[in-house]
Design brief:
It contains twelve helices and 23 strands. A four-stranded mixed β-sheet has the order 2-15-17-16. A four-stranded mixed β-sheet has the order 4-5-3-14, with helices on one face. Strand 4 and strand 5 form a beta hairpin. Helix 9 runs parallel beside helix 11.
Length: 427
């Protein structure tokens, strides 16, 4: 399907069960594979990024069983050492698979080639590679220096006890390094030498490492220490939370178009930072409720423009940019420089597509300002092979205009059934 035509929607109401979190799914798969013992993973996300991780782990010799037709899997851990010592791994555009696998393999003994899509080869990885090389890893660029694809060969063990990594490009570099360090064989302290962005994603990493028996000592967000005796041990069973980033589209729909819209599978106690998007909607004037594993949104007062820092929730910030079309004045989203190295340059892409809808948009290196139009105009939205572009711009139909989404299949990266669920809640 080259495009999908979405009709105008006057109201959104109902309940949706969220797919599993991509960030939790891929982290849990990798840690279960590295652990000793067998782990049952319940509610794994059914999407492209997770399939890339599953394929890679199986290619590395990890025995993974699916439990019937469910999204529950048994992962038989390899106790830190993959059976397959030579492999070529294609990881698509899955940063949550590419970065951690590169770090883990770089601290091992085999020889591997890691590649991805054309866009993956444009996404930086140099800061992570520099840190791995300090630890004795042999990593070679097969294309442009600082970018995938990579060739990884057996590490030259050393006793380096301190390594530095930048945190202002992608938090995945810090997460990848932390997940790999129990394989280093000695105590290693990681110093983050610049501001760490997307801190909640590192919090997810630390939480899951703890579930698998590895306690990381920390000094704020500047220093992390992984002890020499650290080793992953299966927690026996683990549930994958619903995806908080995906929740943002439905909560936004309820806030814009009446509601109530309830998302099930993630709630106020979630380990995912993107649940804070509910606070953003509340600040804009929506009525928000939440308990245990659900949130609900409905229209309250007229939505207000905001001026806010989105450093900690950059994915959900894309949804906020589209909600800004429905506010009573301009909105400014700050500290979103990481948008430029995601699936596409999201600052440039959002500015282009929001302008098509009639908004006036200004941008800077790490910010975007949206002044909503008096009324939206119909538009054809390009998605740039970026799942979040497709999903968040579906919300424009709530402005009473038809919207054409080009390449709607890109949502298969994290939420293959998104448009079906969106249509089900539409009135």
């Amino acid at each position: 399907m080259e495009f999908l035509d979405l009709p105008p929607v006057s109201r959104m109401a109902g309940s949706v069960r969220l797919p599993g979190s991509k960030s939790i799914s891929n982290r849990t798969l990798l840690l279960a594979a590295l652990a000793s013992g067998t782990t049952e993973i319940r509610g794994l996300l059914d999407a492209d990024d997770v399939e890339r991780m599953l394929d890679a782990l199986r290619a590395l010799g990890v025995h993974i069983e699916r439990r019937g037709a469910s999204r529950d899997f048994l992962v038989h851990g390899v106790s830190g050492s993959f059976q397959t010592q030579s492999a070529e791994l294609f990881l698509g555009n899955a940063g949550t698979a590419f970065r951690p696998l590169a770090a883990v393999l770089a601290l091992g003994t085999g020889e591997y080639r890691l590649s991805g899509t054309e866009r993956m080869h444009e996404r930086p990885i140099g800061d992570l590679v520099d840190a791995l090389r300090e630890l004795g890893s042999n990593v070679r660029y097969l294309g442009n220096p600082g970018y995938p694809p990579l060739h990884i060969s057996a590490r030259t063990p050393n006793a380096v006890e301190r390594v530095a990594v930048r945190g202002d490009v992608s938090s995945q570099f810090v997460s990848a390094l932390l997940m790999a360090l129990p394989l280093a064989g000695n105590t290693v302290e990681v110093d983050v030498v610049s501001e760490l962005i997307s801190k909640p994603y590192v919090e997810i990493t630390l939480n899951l490492m703890q579930r698998f028996g590895v306690e990381v000592e920390r000094s704020g967000w500047r220093s992390f220490r992984v002890p020499a005796h650290a080793a992953y041990v299966s927690p026996v069973a683990i549930n994958v939370e619903g995806d908080a980033s995906s929740a943002s589209y439905f909560l936004a729909a309820g806030a814009i178009a009446g509601g109530p819209v309830r998302v099930q599978g993630v709630g106020p106690g979630s380990i995912q930072g993107d649940v804070r998007f509910a606070e953003t909607l509340s600040a804009m004037g929506a009525s928000i409720a939440g308990q245990d594993d659900w949130y609900e949104a409905r229209s309250g007062r007229a939505l207000r423009g905001i001026d806010a820092d989105f450093n900690s929730i950059p994915d959900a910030a894309m949804t906020a940019a589209v909600v800004a079309l429905f506010a009573d004045g301009p909105s400014t989203l700050r500290n979103i420089g990481s948008w430029r190295v995601k699936e596409t340059d999201r600052i440039a892409a959002m500015a282009t597509e929001l302008t098509k809808l009639g908004a006036r948009v200004e941008t800077g290196p790490d910010w975007i300002r949206i002044t909503p139009p008096g009324s939206l105009v119909p538009a054809t939205i390009d998605t740039y092979d970026d799942h979040r572009m497709a999903m968040c711009f579906s919300l424009a139909t709530l402005g009473g205009v038809p919207i054409r989404i080009n390449d709607p299949r890109c949502v298969s990266k994290t939420f293959p059934d998104y448009f079906a669920e969106f249509a089900r809640l539409s009135r």
